[in-house]
């Protein structure tokens, strides 16, 4: 007997009509096992890429030039890899990310910050305007710098006044900016 699927072989059963369900289930189980193996291999490759790229971290400026700015978490890069099949792009993301459980990064504080934004584009960012007009004075170590065509970003400064980290804040709410500065500025956390 042959059914619609030629890859499944059926033998007649003496008491019933021929059934293929047991064979089909075995085939489905094998295919599911293959899918699980493929998924495991993919996860292993991603973890290997993360481990290999861990030693090749890029500077904040290099990451910004590649288009990876802000507090990108490595888990975001892994999600990114599911949608973008360009391994070089994923590798760059992994070089610019911060591990999700990196407690040492959460304890880093800065001496000051520059809030850089384009004055012409400021109208599109009411939350940032609200921060500048009503909250900025609470943070004396934060200066506003207007730069033509610059997306809104927070440039964190070390003790020497040098740029230590750049974080894009395009979609941040005012309370997110406040919370971030309270946690990251030495004068605000003291």
Instruction: Please name the fourth-level CATH homologous superfamily of the largest domain.
Output: Sep15/SelM thioredoxin-like domain, active-site redox motif
CATH architecture of the largest domain: 3-Layer(aba) Sandwich
Topology order in helix (H) and strand (E) letters? HHHHHEHEEEHH
Distance between the termini: 82 Å
Total number of beta strands:
4
Q: Number of domains in the coordinates?
A: 2
Level-1 CATH class name of the largest domain? Alpha Beta
GO molecular function, one term: oxidoreductase activity
Domain Selenoprotein F/M: 113-185
Region (Disordered): 12-34
Keywords: Endoplasmic reticulum, Selenocysteine, Signal
